[in-house]
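INFO  loader      accepted 1 record
INFO  loader      residues=108
INFO  predictor   begin
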Amino acid sequence: MANLKTKIDLYLKANSKTWDNTKVSLQNNSDGNGDFISSWTYDIAEPTTEQIDIYETAGNTAEALRTVLSNRANDYPSIEDQLDKIYHSGIDEWKKVIKATKDKFPKE
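INFO  predictor   done
INFO  writer      dumping tokens
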């Protein structure tokens, strides 16, 4: 299930806005009801629950992609090691190293 921040971010983008911590705040009272919008000062209407729920699938996709990209970033060799690989073994060998990580963490 996509988190509220992701879904609100998608709602904002659909309305030509970007996330701004001075214009929106989320809160969680640890009462089992989850996150909710505690303040909203954008020049567009605060989204309803139904409007936010529309972004569930897109939110899941965005979060999955962020996870893949994060996993790849953590798995890739350092830039120094990559440059060393290119210098000593050539571009084709470097591409194999990068492809192994991309294959290990494919985009859905």
